[in-house]
Amino acid sequence: TMNIPITPVSLGRLAAITVGSFILAFAVPSTGQIDSSGASIATAIFAATLVSFLIFQAAERRRMLLMTVSLELNKLRRIYHLSKNLSEASQRFRGWFTEIHLFLTEYLSVFAQKKFSDYDDGSAAFRKLSYHIYTVPELETKKEGTLFEDLLKTTGVIAEARQQIREMQGSRLSAYSWASVLLIVSGVVITQVLTLGDSTVSRLLAAVTIATALLAVEMLWEVDALRAEEDSLSKRYVDNIGKLELSRRR
Description:
Number of strands: 0
Largest sheet: none
Distance between the termini: 37 Å
């Protein structure tokens, strides 16, 4: 499921689209071009097929983005626990671990002031963290070597996840795709208006068709832009600061 968050702004847009569609359908004078209803049906079907396909693509991109964010956060916590285990194995790692904890917190704190669309602004803070990992004191035991090897692999997974997140953020629908969608949906609205009959049923059907087409475009925008989730995604990073602090006190 897509589970798109409902916000007052998005709810207002949905209400405006629905009410506006009914006002349009009942306010426009009837043309009586009932013989052209086949064209309006064909246009609506084509628009529905195209928008449904694009919504599926955007939803799949969104699903992968959320999964990759979860992966990154999971591996960031793993960096903390692996380095903590090293610090508990020998006093030599205490200062190094303290710095790792500091850099982890600094990276996660970036999202307290940034929207998720500014994700790349955290790159410098992540580089400080990853570079510091390589400054580990000399490894003397097999256990220390195993933990550090796992730490390096985990850091590599995070770096790859960050790259995937940046790529997915940049793979929104193109301007050409949006122009095509808007032109086709405009065609649906125009054909519905041109084939309006005098009956209440005809106007209700036109209103429902217009509202459905516009609401589908609104859903496509929400899924593609992730506007409603920008704050919640940033909050997931910030919330992990508390989890690290809780782990440290244990």
